[in-house]
Amino acid sequence: MGKYRYLLRGALILALTLCIGIFMAACSEGGSDAEEENAASGVNPLTGATEEEGYDPAADNQRIAAFVVENAPEARPQWGMDDPDYSPDIVLQGEVEAGITRTLWMYADYNKLPEIIGPMRSARPPYIRFSELFDAVFIHWGMSSSKGSYVGADDVFEDDEVDHIDQMTFSDNTGMYDREGTRAVSMEHTGIVYGSKVPAALEEAGFRKEPEDYTHLDFSDLALITSVIPAQQVKVKYSDKAAWDSTTWTYDSEDGKYHTANFQNDFERDNLIILYDETEYIDKADYGGSGATLTYCDYDFSGGKGYILCKGTAKEIEWRVEDGKLVLIDPEATRVAQEKAAEAAAEAEDEEKQDAEEEEEAGPVEINASLYPGKSWIGWISSNNGGSVEFPGSEDGSEE
Predict the structure, then answer these.
(1) Which of 59, 312, 355, 364 could disulfide-link to 109, CB 3.0 to 4.6 Å?
(2) Quick one: pLDDT at residue 17?
């Protein structure tokens, strides 16, 4: 087993070395041709899919749609999550309050949605701010309100001037919102959106149609080459408070995807993205006039460590928010690229060929982390309140 591990690692390192040449050729001032291609027309900015792979280029001229979907046990399985044709391009999952998690579903093309999406749930500040990284229209059912030291979704919507549709205040002449009555659950777990009516509802709302500058993820068939951590399975814990609601994914080599049953369905993803972030717990007294205190979880968007998993392997990444966009960095590829650039500069014989002024403007080489083309799940976990990632069966067993 040890011999196999070292042979595997050696092969991956060799592949990384070969791949760096490709990355270096593509890099220019911290960017890449791949980044420009993904930002160009005809490529899904959330999955990397092309027109030949089912993406409609007309969606380039419309904004991303984001839906807040509940994840309490009573809400599972969620309607539309595992739709065979129109599952979400990206599902974000993180802690909201009282140790529970909630999800945010994002679609690059709101003309291609499941018949039903839900159960819909109320907005929380971290999810609003995350959707802003993609210039998304935010669709929800209710929102948290500010009180005391807690800044609620109501103030974030107003202060950030976010385009959003709330069932509680929307005229909804198109009938986009409804309740599903086939489950024996309380009413708060039954709110739904009819996917076919979303385009008309957005017209009714009258929001800006053309997207502005927003996050375009990088995709490459070579994404797994720089991975060095075996990741046949991964367990994600969001925090100590939300330890009961951890999510476990298992890789299936037959379809090349990760699967989880945590949503009480067989939910599959091509990529798993895990982002560590600092969190803060904020108490809101007399919640809803009940006299009880509710503790909300807020995310700092401070960036830091993370992982990308695809094809049964994982690689460590770094992430940050820059100019209002999510940036994923491959630190190992960046390190090697910088070493190569330094060696090339040192070996230059003709100093006149090096323009110091241009070099200063270009800045250090930095390689964006690439995803495998396909759909992703993002696990947003606490770096200071007990969030952790475990890789059962790997050499170390866990990474924290």
Answers:
(1) 59
(2) 40
